[in-house]
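Risk register update: the risk of archive-format incompatibility is retired. Evidence:
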Amino acid sequence: SKLTNLGHLEMTWRSRVHFHPLLVRILHKSRLRYYGKPEKKMDMPYQAYFEIADGSGMMSMVLWNSLCPEWYHSLKVGTVLLLAKYAIKSSYPFKTHPTPGDSQMKRFATIEICLNVRDPPTEISIIPEEMVKPEWGLPEVKYRFITRSELDDLPHNHSCDVIGLVTFVGRAERARKREHSEDFWLYRWAHAIDGTSDQPFILELFATSQPDVFERIHPMTYLVCTQMRVMTENASRTVYLTTSNESQIFITGWHQGQPYIKDAKVKNFIQWMKSQSEADQIKKTVIGGYYPFPRPPDSFLKY
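Archived output:
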């Protein structure tokens, strides 16, 4: 069929009601958001953002309501989509934005593509990777992996991806989203090493929309975390990483077929792991317990 591209849509969307189909690749995926309220009677008040791209650039795509339970888990980073009968509206100004792996990629930030169950009913088709043709010009998924030895030099709030061997995972803890609120964030602390430093990555992992992975993080798994943010704890100058709205977490058993397996730093980590003794690493691992972070000072005077 006759296709359009994201760049052409941005220039012509106000003068059109119907749009030609789009062929795009998913580069980023947000957590699933529930926006239900007791006074509003909605069947499926869910929403999820994706960043999609073609040869012309990158744009946000929003999956709405009952399409979320139907499609959210099928739409993975790297998936190629053919979209027809979608809607377009001006971008929501307060949305978070992931940091693209390719800094040269053009971002179309004024509009976003909306996928709805009606008005109009969107048609979504997943194109299997083996059928994707190079002449379509779809960008590859790119990452910003860092090693532990590079972490201490990165500025606060810098976005990065990491891979490491889990040596510690704490119990799941809860924090109130707002004071006096009944809503909680669920999170756990983890340590991961990559062989480039004596220090581990300290990871604050909030439960994203991947409960199956979040519950199964345990010592000796290969952990990949994408779109993490660098946080500097001022009092102790300790650097740790926390998940963002677009973070994805993968552990052993989930890596196969993921786009990051081609990344040079991921391959270097795998090579380092092959040189390690599993028995030696197991002796250094810890699971569970209370993890006070940031650590309190060692004397009341400093406190």
